[in-house]
């Protein structure tokens, strides 16, 4: 295991193994300010999450672009049919919550991209726990990085909150676009309790709490489910690491195979469902931005 090699000749405990696999690959990017001669340190930059999320985003966009490029008006192949079914599903969901046809021309493809992107990021959890970290154990230090690697971007809170914050920005854009800057500003102080000057501060506070709660819960829901799934896979991997030529060791090996198979099959549903939920909430929140209180 990568954790064992990282710790030297002494095998890590279960806690050390999990802590090692839960640590992000962080890279310091320092930029010197010539005028003030100060250093800005971005030491909490999760390099692994950015690399994997960007790579999977490119792959997802390429898959969708390739499907659109090869689309024909005749009998579709399996790949085209699968993408068409997925696109129609997203479009039908969008029609149910966003009644502005012009807005759907942008929001529907956005929601489709979000679904595919998050599904791919979630699917990284299906890889063996030590597969990529074991490779990185040899390559990382040689490139000047530390021996840490997490491959599931959506198990990183900074990734999921970044996604939910992006959805919030889209909602703010449509609030202004549909209602106008003045109309939206008036809504911020006139809803939900009524258009009265005495209620303006309370209304504004409630609106800010609503936006904050939506954004945080949107990101935390995805993070919590994927982090828990990743942790279960680590615990199952520990069972496989404890096998030996004994009754207990063989039992652990069998339990590792059975538990790993069952959890993997169940997790296929989890990663798909979480991508769908995030996509639906994106549609619902952008749909609410079109509605007047």
Folded structure, characterized:
The chain is mainly alpha-helical and about 290 residues long. It has one domain (about 1-290). It contains nine helices and two strands; from the N terminus they run ααββααααααα. It has helices at about 1-5, 15-20, 45-70, 80-95, 100-125, 130-140, 155-190, 200-240, 245-290, and strands spanning about 30, 40. It has a two-stranded antiparallel sheet. The protein is globular and about 75 Å long.
Comma- or semicolon-separated keywords:
293 residues, mainly alpha, 72% helix, 2% strand, disordered N terminus
What would a concise description of this structure say?
Helices cover 72% and strands 2% of the residues. The longest helix is centred in the C-terminal third of the chain and has 42 residues.
Mean of pLDDT: 86
Count of DSSP strands:
2
**Helix proportion of residues, in percent?**
over 70%
Distance between the termini: 56 Å
Trace the largest sheet across and list its strands.
Answer: 1-2
Shape by Cα distribution = globular
Topology:
Layout: H1 2-7, H2 14-21, E1 30-32, E2 39-41, H3 47-69, H4 78-97, H5 101-123, H6 131-142, H7 157-190, H8 200-241, H9 247-288
Antiparallel strand pairs: 1-2
Helix pairs in contact: 2-8, 3-5, 4-5, 5-9, 7-8, 7-9, 8-9
């Amino acid at each position: 295991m990568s954790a064992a090699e990282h710790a030297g000749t002494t095998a890590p405990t279960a806690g050390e193994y999990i802590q090692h696999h839960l640590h992000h690959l962080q890279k310091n990017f320092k930029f010197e300010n010539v005028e003030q001669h100060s250093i800005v340190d971005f030491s909490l930059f999760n390099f692994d999450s950015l690399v994997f999320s960007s790579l999977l985003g490119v792959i997802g966009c390429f898959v969708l672009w390739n499907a659109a490029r090869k689309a024909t008006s005749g009998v579709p192949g399996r790949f085209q049919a699968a993408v068409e079914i997925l696109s129609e599903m997203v479009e039908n969901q969008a029609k149910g919550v966003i009644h502005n046809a012009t807005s759907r021309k942008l929001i529907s493809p956005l929601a489709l991209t979000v679904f595919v992107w998050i599904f791919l990021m979630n699917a990284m959890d299906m890889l063996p726990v030590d597969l990529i970290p074991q490779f990185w154990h040899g390559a990382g230090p040689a490139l000047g990085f530390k021996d840490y690697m997490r491959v599931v971007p959506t198990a990183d809170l900074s990734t999921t909150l970044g996604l939910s914050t992006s959805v919030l920005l889209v909602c703010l854009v449509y609030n202004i676009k549909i209602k106008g800057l003045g109309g939206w500003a008036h809504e911020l102080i006139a809803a939900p309790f009524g258009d009265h000057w005495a209620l303006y501060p309370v209304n504004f506070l409630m609106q800010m709490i609503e936006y904050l709660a939506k954004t945080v819960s949107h990101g935390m829901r995805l993070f919590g489910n994927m982090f828990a799934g990743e942790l279960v896979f680590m615990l199952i991997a520990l069972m496989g690491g404890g096998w030996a030529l004994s009754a207990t060791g063989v039992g652990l090996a069998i339990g590792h195979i059975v538990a790993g198979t069952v959890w993997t099959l169940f997790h296929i549903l989890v990663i798909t469902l979480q991508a769908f939920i995030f996509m639906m909430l994106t549609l619902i929140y952008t749909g609410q931005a079109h509605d007047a209180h």
